[in-house]
Write a structure and sequence with these properties.
Layout lengths: L1 E4 L12 E3 L2 H8 L5 E3 L2 H32 L3 E5 L7 E6 L1 H10 L9 E2 L4 E3 L1 E10 L2 E10 L2 H8 L4 H10 L21 H7 L1
Parallel strand pairs: 4-9
Antiparallel strand pairs: 1-2, 1-3, 5-7, 6-8, 8-9
Length: 198
Amino acid sequence: MQIILLERIEKLGAIGDVVSVKDGYARNYLLPNKKALRANDANKKVFEANRAKIEADNAERRTAAEAQSGDVEGKQIVLIRASSNSGQLYGSVSVRDIVDGLNEQGANVSKQMIVLERPIKTLGIFDVKVNLHPEVSVNVKVNVARSPDEAELQSQGVDVMAAMFEQDVSGFTEAYDPNAEPGEIAVEETEEEGEAQA
């Protein structure tokens, strides 16, 4: 289907471009959301007559989005989630969680603005893109941890999962005796004790 774009759409084109898209994409998304018009003669005339107003409105929205970008750019939100020992979350972090976290910090964003390329299903710090306007996007950091202490460590650059595995391995000391009876404690004999027994 041939359509006329009423706003810039990534990977499609800019305002006023006549592009060809799949019928379902046009009927289900672009046309109902007033992002495009069907490319027929009547609509082309209407678009050309209103082009200056459409471009002025777009410029106004872009200016507002650029002003808002200062409130959102570089923000970090902390989400506390339960996870397995390997760092896999029980569930995943949703767009709604990110929106709620940003709005608590006064960002004023909606679900449509968040671009989550793949679901967040592990612990760690993730960069998430926020489209405030088709021409204005910013990045925020999402810190997913099991506790506020872990979140603090992650924000300082510590790999919490790697540190946890090092701690598990370091639990065994040289005094560990694999032949000891259960409940027996391995104790190094001092020289004095050795002489006393002799």
